[in-house]
Structures are given as C-alpha cells and as structure tokens.
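Field reference: sequence -> structure
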Amino acid sequence: MRDDDAGDGARADELAWREIVDHYGEGPDVAGLIELTSPLPEPEAGPEEPFHLDLEDDESFTPPPLPPPPVISPERRVAWVGLVASPVLLVVINLIDYALPGILTFGLVVAFIASFGYLVATMAPRDPDDDGARV
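Structure field:
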C-alpha cells in the first residue's frame, strides 16, 4: 500500500464527515447566541441581613408507637444460639491454638447443622403477593 492511497482514503473520510456535519439538522440561532453573550446587568445591592425561616407549625408530628417485638419460642432461641455460637466458638478455640477433643468439635458442627435445619424447617410460609410494604 502506498502513502498516496492512504492520503486519498483520509481525504475521502474527511469529505464524507464534512458533508454529514454541513447537512445535519438546522443551523444554530446566531441571533439568540449574540443576545446571550451580552453583559448581564449588575444586581442591586441591598442591606445584608441573615436569612430567617419562620415556621409557624403548631402541630408536631409524632410517629405511632412501635408494635411490640415478636415473641420467640425457647426452641428457636436455642437454635439461634447453636447457629451463631458454634462457629464462633470453633474459630475462637482455633485462634487461641487450643486442641479441642474430636468428639466436641464434631458436636459443635452437628449443633450448627441441626440448628440451621431446625430454623429452616420451622420457617413460616410467606404470601407470594406480600412485598412487605405497609400503608
């Protein structure tokens, strides 16, 4: 490929783009542009005083009281403790470099799996049309 061929292709591309730009939509409003570039008048200087917002609300919003927290059954509490405490206890024991007997390690793993299984098995089914929004 010669340099002349590359130059002809570049010139053809430039001419094609120039034609597209020249024939694209309406031209800009030059008169409006000139008006926008004129200097703006200076604002009048008034007395400087701080901004005060007067709120005349006699009513103040108080949200409704929160509903009481749900009552958790003792079985579920034990399952939550087993779910959280078993892995935490295993990690702490390994961090302090203490060798736990194999049966206790196995018991903690079983407690974790049993707690997770119990919590999943006793979950209440949810209404598929309920998105959680309240009015």
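Note: The chain has four helices and no strands.
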